[in-house]
Write a structure and sequence with these properties.
Layout (H helix, E strand, L loop, with lengths): L4 E6 L2 E6 L6 E9 L9 E4 L2 E4 L5 E7 L2 E8 L6 E7 L2 E4 L2 E3 L39 E2 L3 H6 L7 E2 L12 E6 L21 E8 L3 E2 L6 E3 L4 E7 L13 E8 L2 E8 L11 E2 L4 E4 L10 E8 L7 H4 L3 E2 L2 E2 L13 E3 L6
């Protein structure tokens, strides 16, 4: 496909911005400190898109769908730069100057030890009565995981996640983390970064099949909205997640709430959300063949690569690894303890 390119002259060098697909947008620029010194290898995030600056402090992100995005730049020893960027069609220049952090002793608060990955723990007799967890667990990542990123803390504080659907109901799980499907199809795309995703359909033990009755999708924990899409009407189409909300739940954890009904998304990038707050309604948009919620948790924007941590994430009393599907004849339900909406 034809791509044009543009040259931006910066002091001392030329910064090439390659054009993107017609109708799409791209941003690029330079990250510096307050004195104008370039920052190499800083992380640049624009919604779900991520890159790093080169040795001259330059970055570029191409083929971005126009719209509002949560934009942040991180560099060791500096305060995080955060902003909402309106990406337009064509080329945009966004330079960033980061403020240095004062040297200080970092203190961490110990929390309750995690109950482990749960992989060797047998399934409880009744999924509708999960064990009670009252404290946010802590997981010690493996040495290998720590070596992959210097930004990863030695102690991981996990948010108090709850199933992102109305409380007091036992919801039917159709796809488990890793892609196992209760209908028998083993390949539903829950791989790589999306490994720790699950699909929950509009069916619960108390009410049965809801046949399209609006089901609110709730924030699984407190956080900040980083990206949304609320424009997709089609189903089984190329738009992947369809309409979705992406939330930064803090401490390196993010979640995607996908395939939401059109046009039900009720939050915007930059909004602070509380656990139990309505984000939208369960739907069937994007790459979807039936009404359901695709709920996906990542750590440091990774899935299977951060399995040591994510296996220990607890949600309504169960680790993610213990959310297992049944079969069509013997489905498994999971209880939400949400208090909202």
């Amino acid at each position: 496909m034809f791509r044009s390119f543009h040259a931006i002259i910066l002091t001392g060098f030329v910064f090439l911005l390659w054009g993107c697909t017609p109708g799409m947008g791209q941003i690029g620029g330079v990250a510096t400190d307050a004195n104008g010194k370039v920052l190499s290898f800083a992380e640049v995030h624009l919604g779900e898109h991520m890159t790093t600056t080169n040795v001259q402090g330059q970055y570029q992100l191409i083929d971005i769908q126009p719209g509002f995005y949560y934009f942040k730049v991180l560099a060791k020893g500096f305060y995080t730069h955060e902003a909402i960027v309106d990406v337009l069609s064509g080329v945009q220049r966004v330079d960033v100057a980061l403020t240095p952090q004062p040297e200080r002793v970092q203190l961490t608060q110990a929390t309750a030890s995690a109950k482990g990955s749960g992989a060797s723990t047998p399934e409880p007799a009744s999924q509708s009565e999960p064990e009670t967890v009252t404290e946010s667990p802590t997981v010690q990542p493996s040495t290998e995981a720590q070596e992959e990123t210097s930004a990863q803390p030695t102690e991981v504080i996990i948010p108090d996640f709850k199933l992102p659907l109305p409380g007091g109901y036992d919801w039917l799980l159709s796809t488990e983390p890793g892609g196992g499907f209760y209908g028998g199809d083993p390949n539903l795309g829950h791989r790589g970064r999306a490994y720790f995703a699950m699909d929950i359909i509009d069916n619960n033990r108390q009410q049965g099949e809801l046949h399209g009755f609006p089901v609110p999708v709730l924030a699984a924990a407190d956080g900040v909205v980083t990206e949304i899409r609320n424009t997709v009407i089609c189903q089984a189409c190329e738009f992947g997640y369809g309409n979705f909300v992406r939330v930064d739940h803090g401490n390196g954890f993010t979640a995607v709430y996908a395939h939401l009904r059109y046009p039900s998304v009720s939050v915007d990038p930059g909004d602070k959300v509380r656990q139990g707050q309505v984000l939208g309604f369960m739907g069937n948009t994007g790459h979807s063949t039936g009404i359901h919620l695709h709920f996906e948790i990542r750590y440091l924007n990774e899935g299977i690569k951060q399995a040591d941590v994510l296996n220990g994430v607890m949600m309504d009393g169960l680790s993610l690894s213990r959310y297992k599907v049944g079969t069509v004849s013997r489905p498994k339900y999971y209880t939400s303890s949400q208090k909202g909406p």
